[in-house]
Every structure is written in structure tokens, then in C-alpha cells.
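Appendix B, example 12.
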Amino acid sequence: MNRDDIVPAETPLEDWLGRLAEARGAPGGGAACAVMTAISAALLGMVAAYTPDDIAAEQAVRRLQRTRHEATRAAEEDGVRSAAFGAALAMSEGPEREQAVRQATVEAIESSLAIGRLGASLLDDVHLLADIGNPHVEADLRVATETLRAALEGAHLTAEANLDLLTRHRKQGDELGPHIEEFERALAALAGKRSECDDVAISLRSR
């Protein structure tokens, strides 16, 4: 398969990190946020698995496994979009480049926001496990929460930066207004989830 990305779930960790460290941009920050989301889901799943004889914890194990798989797929998909984004920016100056940059930037923003929403979906299980989780693995719950904080912050940062780029590449009559309004609403919602995660992390640290 001739693509400028690699599949996190099928790649040794050192190889994936090596690719991330290269001047490729694919994978990039968005994919890293998706991987952090997967790590958070995995750690939360472990806490749930260590919480015996609880139906809610058993349900969380299955739910978190699905989210972990979704996050690794999101990392792969973000790598594809990052490659397209880089290719658009590398084009020669002209109308075709501007159109390609706008389209690739819209897709990059959508990808970052999707990763953010996926991370935000973990907050219900963070709250659940803060209440019922096995206290012997509370340190792992705290690591999962801090990792999720970083993932949400990163998704917000990447989406915000790309939205700024999109705004700078607009042209009259480009019909991007509704997209930008939707992206701004989604960023505000993501910021709210990030703050919620901050509050949970502070609460866990103070226990």
C-alpha cells in the first residue's frame, strides 16, 4: 500500500515513534493525540478489569476496548490526512494550491475534532472509575486521566491552529463560513470537556 503513513496498531512502538520524529508530518500531532487517547482508554480498561464483581465495570471494559480500537484507527486516518495536508502545502503557488490547502485544512480540522470527541467520550468512564474503581490501581487511573488531558489539549491545539490557517487562506465566495462557525462551536465544546478533565485530575490528585 503506497501511503505516507503507518498503522499504529500494526507497527512496533519504536518504529512508529521514529516515524513521528521525522520531518514528514505524517504521522503528526493529531495522530499522537489519537494514540494518547488509545493509551488512556487502555489504562482505564485495566482499572475496570481490576474492579471485580461489578456489572458497570464489566460493561466499561467492553466499551473502553471499542474506544481504544477506534482511537488507533483515528491515528491512522489522521496520518493519511496529514500526508494530504503536507502535499497541498508543497504545491506551487497558484489558485490550485489555494483550493487544495483549503480542502486539506478542512479535513485536518475535522480529523482533530473527531479525535477530541473520541477523547471526550472517555470522561464518563473516568468519572465512573473514580467512583467504583479498585483503589489499588488508582495511580493508573490518575495516569489515564492525565494522558487524556494531554490528548484533549493537543486535539484542541491542532484544530485551533488549522482553523487559523484556514481563515488566512479564505477567498471571497468560498462558502466556508458555515464550516468555520461549526468548527468554532466544536472547539468551544472541546474546551469545555478539557476543563472537565482538568477538574477530575485535580480531584484525583487531592484524594
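Residues 36 and 150 are 8 Å apart (CA to CA). The first helix runs from residue 13 to 20.
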